[in-house]
Specification:
Transcription Regulator spoIIAA, 4 helices, alpha/beta, about 130 residues
Length: about 130
């Protein structure tokens, strides 16, 4: 798997995932999310998984376990995907009561980016 942080500004992060999701590399992605959750009380995340070729459901379950500690920090999660990963994640994260989770088709990048990463003029982040 290849990942790239394509956007990071204060409490917002955009991460592009490509190839086959493997635990060793995905641990680095989770560390990025942990770091931003530690720095900000509310975080918005966009996963561009439009080029993910394969993933293991157990890895996604591990993601849930890792991020559960930060569920109060995660305000929005957007997943761009056509391969079922977005639907799987949405079902998995349904217990994050305070998190707004949306999936987008791969051709809706701008819509996903606007929703997840646009500045929120009503909030001030420390």
């Amino acid at each position: 798997m290849v990942y790239k942080v394509f956007f990071q500004e204060q409490n917002k992060i955009g991460i592009k995932l490509e190839g086959e999701l493997k635990e060793s590399e995905f641990t680095q992605v989770l560390q990025q999310i942990k770091n931003i959750c530690t720095a900000y009380p509310q975080v918005d995340i966009l996963f561009d998984a439009s080029n993910v070729q394969d993933y293991k459901p157990d890895l996604v379950v591990d993601t849930y376990g890792t991020l559960h500690k930060y569920k109060g920090n995660i305000r929005k999660i957007a997943v761009l995907s056509n391969n079922g990963l977005g639907i799987y994640l949405k079902d998995l994260f349904k217990n994050f009561e305070d998190t707004d989770f949306r999936t987008f088709e791969t051709d809706e990048f701008e819509k996903a980016q606007d929703w997840a990463l646009s500045p929120d003029p009503t909030e001030i982040y420390k």
